[in-house]
Amino acid sequence: MIFASCAGIVLIGLATWTHGATSPQTTPQTGALDATTSLPPQAVVVDPRSFAVLGIDGPFRESSITQLFNPTNTTPPFFQVFHPDFLKILGPTGTIRAVAANPTFAFAHEAPIWVPQTDEVFFASNDGGALGMSDIDHNNQVSKISLKEVAAAIKTASRGTAPVNVSVTKLDLPEAIQMTNGGTGPYFGNLLLVNSGRGQLPPSVALVNPNPPHNTTVLLDNFFGRQFNSLNDIKIRPGTNRLFFTDVPYAHLASISMGATLNAMVYRLDPNTKVVRVVADGFDRCNGIAFSSDGKTAFVSDTGANGGFLGNNQTEPATIYAFDVDPKTEAFTNRRVFAYVDTGIADGLQLDANDNLYAGCGDGVQVWNPEGILLGKFFLGTTSANLVFAGNKRLVIMAETAIYFAEIAAKANKLSFP
């Protein structure tokens, strides 16, 4: 989903901290950072106490879509730190930079999958959105970058965190793969993709060999004879081989399908028996999905605030919900609000090894701890729809017309099976 962006608001008298010579310190009663805190060079601290009261004539934001929360007016990309625990995620030398870019093409939208055997990240272009170069008559594009090439480019970069621009390789996939929007894995060595479909070509769950000629197997393309709306995101539940995916009518809202046929719901597919069932409903527009590392908690984002050709409505959901996963039926139960996003919507979701949750949002990637407290942001100044850990300490962020690469301290949560 694409959001317009503009200059951030400025708060007068805002307390910030810069790089110091000592290790991070916090005040005992509040856990807030003090002025001697050592920060990564690209980190900017925004103490929540500094903007808790803006006053009668304060610079209030009127739009969560077009106005970003950047009170220090710092030039992106940078790390926006709201809580000292975010520094544990970043580490003392964390960096972020663009590693591939094409301002005329939203080539890096969703479905990021890291394949460790080749150290490549696969991803899909925007399916029907602005700069996507895809519509009801044209499929979107699945591509890859080499992180070995990224490492070599960074090594020879002219200065510290200067952007680099590595090559993007397009995959030649069969007709069954139409408008890829979500992906995970590897799953038995394959890319696990969910597709929105296009026109009369149905949405589907499919396996694709990451190596040429990219042999493809469609696992599912209907719910008891009814076409899905447009499959959006998918994850493998940890400890199992079962697949959980979201279905939402965004293809209709992007004018690339004939119309909605089902409610917006979350499904489970057993790939062995091909049994498919609904595990959660009651959403406006369910979108991203993820699991805690033990598989007992599921997270689903509701992006009702993004309405495609209906327009954006910031009074509609921009919410991440948490659920318990029933140990027997695997239905999602005990729905509760995990987090509400202050800018745009929460699109793709990922967790790290400590179960901190990362979401692609209207200003970059936002990160919450397991209690739902916003720790900080990978602030890009533009929309990110998804992201993926490329093993430990490497985060690859899709940002439509660019890909960002962060070298941090956090460790990855396993997404592959087996």
UniProtKB/TrEMBL annotation:
Residues 1-20 form the signal peptide. Keywords: Signal. InterPro entries: 6-blade_b-propeller_TolB-like (IPR011042), Oryzine_lactonohydrolase (IPR052988), SGL (IPR013658). Residues 110-394 form the SMP-30/Gluconolactonase/LRE-like region domain. Gene3D superfamilies: TolB, C-terminal domain. This is SMP-30/Gluconolactonase/LRE-like region domain-containing protein. It comes from Pycnoporus cinnabarinus.
